[in-house]
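Hey Z.,

So I finally got round to the zinc ion thing we talked about over coffee. Here's the setup:
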Amino acid sequence: MPAQSCLFLCLKDNFGVLVHDPETQATAAIDAPEAPPVEAALKRTGWNLTDILVTHHHHDHTAGIEELKQRHRCRVVAPDAEASGIPEVDETVREGDRVRVGALEARVIETPGHTAGHISYWFEPDCLAFVGDTLFSIGCGRVIEGTPDMMWRSLLKLLALPGETRLYCGHEYTQANIRFAQTIEPDNLALIARAAEASEQVRQHKPTIPTTLDAEKAANPFLRADLPEVAAAVGLAGKPAAEVFAEIRGRKNRF
Ligand SMILES: [Zn+2]
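And the result:
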């Protein structure tokens, strides 16, 4: 049976999301920014929390873990490289490891850059990927612990997933990201359409995610750093994609 999901806001602009297996009734929270909105989502859906799958160690992704674990005795899965900075970890995972949520199965993709040990969870049969703070809709995470080159290689791994993959990210940053993206590719028709779509979603108080990899490939400048027109737009025609990516990321930091 296909996975079910429940998306909700936490803190100021974090997303929380539950993934539910209707066959076994297992339910995972992807990250735990804070406990109360997770509890509210569990109550709304009638699901029981069995697992927390952590993408990286930042406090706004882990602050709810202790309280949730105490109440639900759920298993906490976290990136091996960051386990010491994450509370209550039961299992650590690395590139290629499989994580089961009931009968659902995710593959771990190491996507360092934002943090040195950041991981993403790809539920291949369900065409779902939880990418934390690596990739945002029309944006990407700040490169805090890694290098731009490392982050670009992480994005290449996500670019290799099937185009129809639905992407869930850690923050509602879409409109701010669009404003920046339009400074790089003002004439990109997919980006213009995405701006209109996101405005309508926000007007209706709806989240702007999940997005799809195909939609991001068409409009997200960070995923388009390997295209000649994007390299030219930032004055780096003919330069390697990683260099173009670093330039775009640097501009976003100063935006
Ligand atoms: Zn983060």
